[in-house]
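Example S7 (structure tokens).
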């Protein structure tokens, strides 16, 4: 197993869900505690997700700005941001600002986003974006942001956006701009996502694949990167796991299912996620993703008790990876 960096998904969706369930106002205390504990424990990164009205949560850029002010070392990531919901110039400005304020710690996991049921379509329709055009809009947004971060007097003519001689300041601290990792999955069988990641991405982030499938998509993307005449130096491979740590496997499965059904309102994960259960099984699966090519594994807890899950993760799983934490 190569040395794999470990990240923590801070579930702002879960915080909002719990507040709705308990008829209280959502509090930032839990996400602040998790962020600070992750940094103290030596984790590489903390991550937050993105959605609008379909899955209410804290807005990710504002949230990461808050967490940036309370941490010093951990990288700050999105898993995953939905850029096509936003205007590319204002989004580039917000992300560049966060990059500067955080001392260059920002990394963007970005995806096209779903529109496979009426709930998901509401995210797009609420901001007057045609869900059917989100993929092309996504590609144009990534291209525009990267140009604005690296160049002055940027012009762009696309199907969705036109820009004439725009210069953005502040620019990111990193000379190459902010790393953008594109959500890429072997399960979809899509060649277009491979070409998109190889052409416009600084890496990939997987969410739904088994270790074998993840290894396959990493190999396909890496080959496509080389065919583009690019180098693999600095090209990142990240995997995002969803787990529930519990001695009673049946209880863990039931809690994870309840949490995720409340989260998504539909079961679209099948048996792709997990394990739900014993710490040793979760540690073993994390190592499988590392062996499959993940340089960073981000862990999300499918549980209503995020603090308990973190405590068990820190005490029972992190010691297995003592060489991978600072």
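Recovered sequence:
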């Amino acid at each position: 197993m190569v040395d794999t960096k470990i990240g923590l998904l801070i579930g702002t969706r879960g915080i909002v869900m719990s507040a709705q369930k308990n008829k209280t106002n959502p509090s930032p205390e839990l996400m602040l505690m998790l962020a600070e504990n992750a940094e103290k424990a030596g984790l590489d990164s903390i991550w937050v997700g993105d959605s609008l009205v379909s899955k209410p949560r804290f807005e990710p850029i504002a949230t990461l700005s808050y967490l940036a002010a309370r941490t010093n070392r951990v990288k700050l990531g999105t898993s995953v941001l939905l850029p096509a919901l936003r205007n590319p110039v204002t989004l580039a400005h917000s992300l560049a600002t966060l990059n500067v304020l955080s001392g260059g710690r920002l990394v963007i996991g970005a995806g096209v986003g779903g529109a496979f049921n009426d709930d998901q379509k509401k995210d797009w329709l609420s901001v007057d974006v045609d869900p059917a055009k989100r993929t092309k809009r996504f590609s144009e947004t990534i291209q525009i942001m990267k140009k604005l971060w690296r160049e002055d007097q940027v012009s762009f003519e696309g199907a969705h956006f036109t820009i004439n001689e725009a210069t953005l300041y502040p620019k990111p601290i990193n000379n190459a701009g902010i790393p953008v990792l594109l959500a890429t999955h072997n399960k979809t069988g899509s060649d277009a996502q491979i070409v998109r990641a190889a052409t416009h991405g600084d890496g990939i982030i997987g969410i739904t694949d088994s270790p074998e499938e993840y290894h396959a998509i990493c190999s396909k993307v890496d080959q496509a990167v080389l065919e583009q005449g690019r180098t693999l130096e600095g090209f990142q491979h990240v995997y995002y796991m969803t787990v529930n740590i519990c001695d009673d496997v049946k209880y863990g499965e039931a809690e994870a299912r309840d949490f995720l059904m409340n989260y998504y309102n539909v079961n679209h994960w099948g048996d792709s996620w997990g394990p739900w259960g014993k710490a040793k099984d979760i540690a073993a699966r994390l190592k499988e993703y590392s062996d499959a090519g993940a340089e960073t594994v981000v862990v999300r807890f499918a549980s209503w008790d995020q603090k308990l899950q973190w405590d068990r993760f820190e005490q029972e799983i992190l010691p297995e990876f003592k060489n991978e934490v600072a």
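Notes on this example. Residues 5-321 form a domain with the TIM Barrel fold (CATH 3.20.20.30).
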